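Teaching note: in complex prediction, the entire set of molecules is handled at once rather than each chain in isolation. The prompt given to students was simply: 'Predict the structure of this complex.' The entities are:
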Amino acid sequence: MSVLDSKVPKGPLKDKWTDYKNHIDLVNPANKRNIDVIIVGTGLAGGSAAATLAELGYNVKAFCYQDSPRRAHSIAAQGGINAAKNYQGDGDSIYRLFYDTVKGGDYRSREANVYRLAEVSANIIDQCVAQGVPFARDYGGQLDNRSFGGVLVSRTFYAKGQTGQQLLLGAYSAMNRQIARGKIQMFNRHEMLDVVKVNGKARGIIARNLVTGEIERHSAHAVVIASGGYGNVYFLSTNAMGSNATAAWKIHKKGAFFANPCYTQIHPTCIPRSGDYQSKLTLMSESLRNDGRIWVPKKMEDVLAIREGKLKPTQIAEEDRDYYLERRYPAFGNLVPRDVASRAAKERCDAGYGVNATGEAVYLDFKSAIERYGNEQAKLHGLNNPSKEKITELGEGIVRAKYGNLFQMYEKIVDQDPYKTPMMIYPATHYTMGGVWVDYNLMTTVEGLYCIGEANFSDHGANRLGASALMQGLADGYFVLPYTIGDYLSNEIRTGAIPTDTPEFEEAEKAVTDQINFFINNKGSHSVDYFHKKLGKIMWDKCGMSRNAAGLKEAMSEIKAVREEFYKEVNVPGSANEMNPELEKAGRVADFLELGELFAKDALMREESCGGHFREESVELDGEQKGEAKRNDAEFAYVSAWEYKGEPADAVLHKEQLEFKDIELKQRSYK
Amino acid sequence: MNLTLKIWRQKGPQDKGKMVDYKVTEISEHMSFLEMMDVLNEQLINQGEEPVAFDHDCREGICGMCSMYINGEAHGPDRGVTTCQLHMRMFKDGDTITIEPFRAKAFPVIKDLVVDRSSFDRIQHAGGFISVNTSGNTQDANAILIDKHAADEAMDAATCIGCGACVASCKNSSAMLFVGAKVSQYALLPQGRVEATDRVQNMVAQMDLEGFGNCTNTGACEVECPKGISLENIARMNREFFSAKIKG
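The expected output is the structure of the full assembly:
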């Protein structure tokens, strides 16, 4: 018997959440005033949870490392948010969203959680509209939708290419209302550096004030981690520079199991890297695949001519272009899920067809879309025999309205006009499906310690579909956690305020201070970034888009070696009692250096290919699916949840067997 | 390319601060401005000096964390970009670049190029929201029909990233573009109309309390705004404010 209890309610799938809500214990409003909740992170999940819990009457203390909760990295999400509204009448339903998400996740997510997510999705849109989120609308005044990868319906709501920004500002506005009422105490420029457990329960955190360097103790009856994903373990990713795994990793070290670390999403449409100085990668929204067609030249001589600057992509004739996604996956074409699209790009580039100097780029071309929209507009405007230029002009207008800010962003970075020449894109680390293990209540294996949003592992299995991260963050924060945490807190009404002058707080604070002093006094020979880049290279080369046993074993030992060197040689300038960005980075990289090794260990253990995790040893050898990823349901249909035992290599595996009662497990086919 | 950087260094809020010269070499034109700053900092760390503190996070122009006053302009010489999106191709070999923090009474310096913009948050606390609970018991999203043009205009206003370039560019250190954008977003939408009268008065009162100056229609804010927020939003806020005052 596993120590993991997912606590999924009994009963039919579609009734579980309703029944659950009808039978949980509630906290009366007067008692809520005596209960404190700490929330770490103020993105979509943390921000929405903070606002909702404060509205319910709890005293919320929210923490973010940025100078304002509005800057959390959810803000950078571009394309949209899914919801089973079926406004387009194209056959969408809760079941279909649930099904698409489980299938898209390659059958490695927990059915009951995903169904609940699909169930509350429609509510999110209602909520956001009520808050004044300016979603795109059609001329009748109704909400507009677009389509995303891995699905055959249009269920994605959007606000230009800035959907994450608008949803986060919505959650931020809800927070502001509660901050004004005094129900949320906001701690900007604060970083959580450890969780404090008292008698096995999470009772507070140790945080560093990033302006003064002061170490602070904060207590609460429950602690919620909403600190996002660990994509920056690769050094280069589409995450913000400050995005980190420290909160999640520190709770792992205090008893929270870490699940499926090897499930990472490498997003297919990012701007290719241009040099060694590069500090981060920029995403071009997946929504572009609605209208953009992905290709590389068919002929090697064209590839070489392009690289030498002798040929422009626009000069290559239609018949000499290889629209490889349309060729390989006729049913879904350019809208295959992200993992499939990324691997297909890598396959072409590995075969030598990459179109820039580094050989790591493919084209994303809007020419057909501009023509199509142009012709449509010409008809709408009643133009007979419009000139080619007029059609292009009209078509560009529509493309500009849909993706204008993305095109502008591309042009600023690459210095090329994507209306006139195809964009160059290449996959980059974007999202992490793995994370802290949680049960149906979103509670970790530590009592009173919750984890929501990207930081947990629960809903996306081995691959996340586009526009589902925003959905999950807000579902967790607005509509799931506020119920489930109440059930736990109903037992805390007699606890009273938690003191911070106890040995447990003392000890946790000492450990944090010791680590900080170590960094400041180490005076080694290399900067923090030097080690972070080293780690990133190992991760990308050996734990990237395709992985094999030999490489993963090497990765484990190499990461360990970098970690040892880091502790010997890291150089952190400045002092502990001031604003010190290098010190902040040192703590984060120290945790990435442990997480990376567990990542490789998890990837090595999972001898199958599923979703974002592709093992070269596990591919289909023949038939229509030849060369595609091969899952192994008989042996690996489980969640791997790792228990911390000191060194990452010594982590102990616990398995949560996944049961699929409402969905038949099949090989994903997007052909 | 090789560059000379003149950078504002200030140990802490109480420190007097001064401009310090640095040299960087072999800067690629494809680098972003902040990547050039990374190169400088790596150099300083390796020389045993303290790196320059500056705010930054998403590095794709949306979080609003980065600031910097570069050669006398908020976010530097390019238009429609934040500092993190500014590329070195805007400069040439041998240039001297002056880098200062955003300067305004309501944005006190914390360290080097880092300023405290929490005054913006406090203005939002005063009214930057619609008073609806997050219970989810709202009406269906399509029950509120919104004119596409109004929705688009609200979206344009809502694009503000709260970076503070408008304040830094204004000779009066006015925050009216920032406040006007938020007031406009809600004033343009039926959901926001309900409390429009109180909202504009409360937000303007807080803005004044924070020590921001008034608008004298110079328009520098609109020019320097990385998101192209239009001056129309200030006009709309003024209209909203006057009609709120008349209503009382």
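Point out the following to students. The domain at 3-111 of chain B is CATH 3.10.20.30 (Ubiquitin-like (UB roll)). Chain B has two domains: 3-111, 117-247.
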